[in-house]
Design a protein that fits this description.
- The complex is a heterodimer of chains A (456) and B (387).
- Chain A is mostly helical and 456 residues long.
- Chain A folds into 2 domains: 29-191, no CATH class; 248-441, no CATH class.
- Chain A contains 16 helices and 2 strands.
- In chain A, strand 1 (430-432) and strand 2 (436-437) form a beta hairpin.
- In chain B, strands 1-2 form a two-stranded antiparallel sheet.
- Chain B has a domain at 29-214 and 262-302: Cytochrome Bc1 Complex, Chain C.
- The mean pLDDT of chain B is 90.
- Helices cover 63% and strands 2% of the residues of chain B.
- In chain B, helix 6 runs antiparallel to helix 14 (333-348) and helix 12 (314-322) crosses helix 15.
- Chain B has 387 residues and is an all-alpha fold.
- Chain B is globular and about 75 Å long.
- Classes of the chains: A mainly alpha (456), B mainly alpha (387).
- The complex binds protoporphyrin IX containing FE.
- Protoporphyrin IX containing FE is lined by residues 37, 39-41, 43-44, 47, 100, 103-104, 107, 110, 112-113, 117, 120-121, 124-125, 127-128, 202, 205, 209, 214-216 of chain B.
Chain lengths: 456, 387
């Protein structure tokens, strides 16, 4: 008996069950979950790949200038990572676009391709460029060892391609939140949130790859057998964290100005984020940011202390400062789910007057103050750690430090997922703010969705 | 030729001009990386260009709220050459700001501010601030809409100084509001007060340069080899030729005197000259092609005008815009503290290392500062495009 005969009844049943076309429009929540989760995975992986495409060449350059072998090894490792993960990451992207977006949100997809034709077109080609350069960069490592300048130039191009690719997709993503009219390519590129989003994501991707390097090296450090390997992973883990936190401390200001543009140009989304149903998530986000800075500072203090290097004491003080700041940042403003709920109950007065408002949780000035304090303490911590580094002996780290590195990556991933969640939900029920909703995406003859050129 | 020599001799006998010229031209400078060391002289040339064009502009410009704008409008309407001079003054200022920034970044990178050149750096920071004040006060003078609103925003910044803030603002504005006195005071500051400090300070900066010699950067020294894995530091040459102004007996084995030098003239002067000439040509082309704009005359009562800050003011403007009103004094501590840190830099970073890649504890915060400025500028310009 052959195998086909065995499963034939099963196949027959399946054929009866499966829809003949893409699942039709009643199950919007299902489609949202499918697209949302796949997008999260996509961002988590693609962010790493493009971050690596930018950071890798930078590390190679640093290594060349400092004439230290560790950098070259780390950069080469990033090259290997890109070549391995590119195919995986592109598979997910293709699945997202060709199957889920076209299948579930057909009207949206045709509309956005029509409007954002140029960015998507350039995006596709920079993608090709990025893949080609990544492979060339990785596979010519040894052959071009004698021509390091040329090799670094290829790396530079790779970094540019990686940036452009993210930039183009950010143009599309920011347009969806703050659409512009008239829709010509230049207006599209310069829409209200395209600058903040691009800076925010580029810096974010760079931070993210740093933290992931940290966690990866922590795991390898624990398993390393030789003295050289221990020294390398100890150093590289510290480097990754240092890099990651240095990038992250730019984010409060970028994120704040991003929020400000959203307030000006997509007030509904902003309101939902700050005072509405998403406000608890936002509160969690700003707390998480404090935890990230805190974890890094504790790592810095511990890593210096392990070798008795100078500066550990002051770093501990900074950690206390970060705890206090995080506590301030974590204060909720309205002690109910949404501000509207509090207001409609007539309780929008300070809690000591019997209301449900906590003035210490207000955005202005307290959360802004907390953001400023995060940034300043984090800068001080980075500088203090750098000052102490000459006293550190690589390879001597203890497990506690490695655990902090791993925790850091977990916090980062939580952060990225949280931000993605806020982003996508702040726009709901729209796919393109004020212009196109999630409803009716699969109608073959659209009745609900307005025409793409409709004003916002 | 003989006659010329005789004239030269005559002068030399009375002024010692020959030894001055010798000293001016034939000192040793580091050989490698010399293109980066042209930025200082390019700054100097652009400042001198400002001086010359500025003098010409004062021949026409009247510092009054009624006549000032009209005098420049006259240039615009009827005097093509005068318009070009005004264009040169503007574009040279813009490029000067850019070049002085590069010069500063260059000397920061190369650790040129370390012992014994701390005061070269401190005078430099002073020059940088003065040039900024020149640029911002210059922006008031046309008294068009842009100038007026710049004046309103800028004269308000010192008001955030604790205790004496509103006094300084009133002093500068000549009252509570921006008006005629503001313009005449700002004019005085722009053409007299600041230049009177700026030019002597430049002389001091150059005198210090000549005293210690051009440091250059780490690539010019034995110290460059020290931080390399598996590369030996070359031995000290037993007998160094005496190359003033570098010390004949090195006080510091690694960093006192460059490994290879060449004469300032004609080698460095050629590069300096080339860079300066190219910059001046660029300034001239921009002055002819774009020129200096002149908007309608200032109208304090207008409601439809959207002020656009000068590009070099953009980062500060964006900071003021982002930060909530109550926190502005706190936020202004950042630039003020930045200036203080800049002044203190040579006294904080005293280690011998000059290689920028081996000085992360200084380069990284420096990088943050630059990144913050770039990010604020980007965000600010993004907002401008959206108006
Ligand atoms: C009006 C403005 C300025 C003028 C005319 C000027 C001129 C010069 C010149 C001609 C040099 C020698 C050539 C070179 O290294 O580029 C020099 C060197 C130097 N300048 Fe400036 N400069 C100015 C502003 C500044 C500023 C803003 C700084 C830094 C804050 C600065 C710091 C230095 C230092 C440290 C050196 C020594 C460089 C070395 O020896 O390697 N200068 N300057």
């Amino acid at each position: 008996m052959n195998a086909l005969a065995l499963i034939a009844p099963l196949l027959e049943r399946l054929a009866g069950e499966l829809p003949a076309t893409a699942p039709q429009g009643h199950n919007i929540v299902g489609a949202q979950i499918a697209i949302g989760s796949l997008f999260s995975i996509h961002i988590l992986i693609a962010g790493l790949v493009s971050g690596a495409g930018e950071l890798g060449p930078a590390i190679e350059f640093l290594g060349f200038m400092r004439q230290r072998r560790g950098y070259d090894r780390l950069a080469h490792g990033l090259g290997r990572f890109i070549t391995y993960y590119f195919s995986f990451s592109s598979t997910i992207a293709i699945l997202l676009i060709t199957v889920l977006l076209v299948g579930f949100w057909g009207h949206f997809w045709t509309t956005i391709v029509t409007i954002a034709w140029w960015p998507l077109f350039i995006e596709a080609w920079t993608f090709v460029l990025q893949v080609s350069l990544a492979y060339i960069w990785y596979y010519t490592w040894d052959p071009l060892r004698g021509f390091k300048g040329l090799h670094m130039a290829i790396g530079g191009l790779l970094a540019i391609a990686s940036f452009l690719q993210v930039y183009m997709i950010d143009v599309v993503a920011s347009y969806m939140l703050t659409p512009t009219t008239p829709q010509n390519p230049i207006r599209l590129v310069l829409n209200a949130t395209s600058y903040p989003l691009t800076v925010h994501r580029t810096v974010g991707n760079l931070a993210y790859i740093g933290f992931v390097i940290g966690a990866f090296c922590a795991i390898r450090f624990v398993r390393a057998k030789t003295v050289q390997d221990k020294a390398f992973y100890d150093w590289a883990g510290s480097f990754g964290l240092l890099w990651g936190i240095s990038m992250t401390l730019l984010q409060p200001i970028v994120g704040y100005s991003y929020a400000k543009e959203i307030q000006l140009h997509a007030y509904g989304s902003w309101y939902k984020m700050m005072l509405g149903t998403l406000s608890p998530v936002f509160l969690w986000q700003i707390t998480l940011l404090g935890l990230m800075f805190l974890t890094a500072t504790i790592y810095f203090a511990r890593r210096l202390r392990t070798n008795g290097a100078r500066g550990a004491g002051l770093l501990k003080v900074m950690a206390v400062g970060l705890v206090l700041t995080t506590l301030l940042a974590a204060q909720p403003y309205h002690l109910g789910f949404t501000y509207a709920a509090v207001a409609s109950a007539g309780l929008d007065r300070p809690f000591w007057e019997g209301g449900l408002i906590n003035p210490l949780g207000s955005m202005i000035p307290w959360k802004v103050l907390a953001l400023m304090s995060y940034t300043l303490i984090a800068i001080a911590a980075v500088v203090w750690y750098l000052r102490g580094l000459p006293g550190v002996v690589w390879g001597a780290a203890r497990r506690g430090e490695q655990r902090l590195l791993m925790l850091m990556a977990v916090l980062t991933i939580l952060m990225m997922v949280t931000m993605g969640f806020i982003r996508e939900n702040s726009r709901a029920p729209f796919l393109i703010s004020g212009e196109m909703t999630i409803q009716g995406q699969q109608n073959v003859q659209p009745t609900v969705s307005p025409s793409p050129s409709g004003g916002g | 030729m003989g006659r010329l020599d005789a004239v030269y001799d005559w002068f030399d006998e009375r002024t010692a001009v020959r030894s001055l010229v010798r000293k001016g031209l034939y000192e040793a400078v580091p050989k490698r990386g010399a293109w980066f060391y042209t930025l200082g002289s390019a700054t100097l040339v652009l400042i001198l260009l400002q001086l010359v064009t500025g003098i010409f502009l004062t021949l026409v410009y009247v510092p009054s709220v009624t006549e000032g704008w009209a005098s420049l409008n006259y240039l615009k309407q009827h005097d093509a050459f005068g318009s070009i001079v005004r264009g040169i003054h503007l574009w040279s200022a813009y490029i000067l700001l850019f070049v002085i920034g590069l010069h500063m970044v260059r000397t920061f990178f190369s650790g040129s501010y370390k012992r014994p050149r701390e005061l070269n750096w401190v005078t430099g920071v002073g020059l940088f601030l003065l040039v900024l004040v020149m640029a911002i006060t210059g922006a008031f003078l046309p008294w068009d809409q842009a100038a007026y609103w710049t004046a309103v925003v800028v004269t308000n910044v010192p008001a955030y100084t604790p205790f004496i803030g509103s006094f300084i603002r009133a002093l500068w504005r000549g009252g509570d509001f921006v008006g005629p006195i503001t313009l005449s005071r700002t004019f005085g500051i722009h053409v007299w007060l600041i230049p009177a400090i700026l030019f002597p300070l430049i002389l001091a900066h150059l005198a210090l340069l000549r005293k210690h010699g051009e440091f250059g950067s780490y690539v010019n020294y034995r110290g460059a080899y020290r931080s390399r894995e598996g590369v030996d530091v070359p031995p000290v040459p037993p007998q160094r030729p005496i190359e003033p102004p570098y010390p004949a007996v090195p006080t510091d084995e690694l960093w006192a005197a460059p490994l290879e030098t060449e004469d300032f003239f004609p080698f460095q002067t050629f590069k300096d000259g080339l860079v300066s000439v190219v910059l001046v040509i660029v300034v001239f082309l921009l002055a002819v092609a774009i020129g200096a704009p002149l908007e309608p005359i200032a109208d304090p009562s207008t409601t439809s005008y959207t002020p656009v800050p000068e590009w070099f003011f953009l980062p500060l403007d964006e900071l003021l815009l982002l930060v909530p009103q109550q926190l502005i004094p706190l936020a202004l501590i950042v630039p003020a503290g930045g200036v203080l840190l800049l002044l203190a830099l040579p006294f904080i970073d005293r280690g011998p290392e000059r290689n920028p890649f081996e000085r992360p504890a200084v380069m990284v915060p420096g990088g943050f500062a630059v990144l913050f400025v770039i990010i604020l500028t980007l965000l600010g310009s993004g907002r401008l495009f959206n108006l």
